[in-house]
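User: Sequence in, structure out. Go.
Assistant: Echoing your sequence, followed by the structure tokens.
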Amino acid sequence: MSDKVDKMAKARAAKKPPEYKNVRPDVKALDDDDYLSLKNVKEWEKHNKDRVKDLKYQIRRMDKGREQNTLMRELRDREAYLRSLATYLESAVWLDLFYGADQEHRMRWKTVAYAYDDEGYMKTNFTQEPLDFYED
């Protein structure tokens, strides 16, 4: 028995790390502590897949009504978020306004190309909590 366990441990140690051929190199190059790193996105994807599975089970067991509609809405939102995560891994372009396991954080956008009005002033949209930030 211990010989079999030793062989399995040796095989696990010799296993190569995954290559992630379907993930964009820009995403793979991010550090693990970056908020949109591959490690974080994979965790969010797993969390949401588990939640979708639970929601489908709850919806099947529930009578029609307001609570079921609320769960169905959450199910659709989570499925859309999963599609968005897959798109990010393939293209390195984040499409959502929120990020995180439960979409609890708000995304901040970086302006790459500025727009100017007729008088030559840069167009900006400053609100109480700006979504964009500008580099000087």
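User: And one key feature?
Assistant: Residues 66-91 form the longest helix (26 residues).
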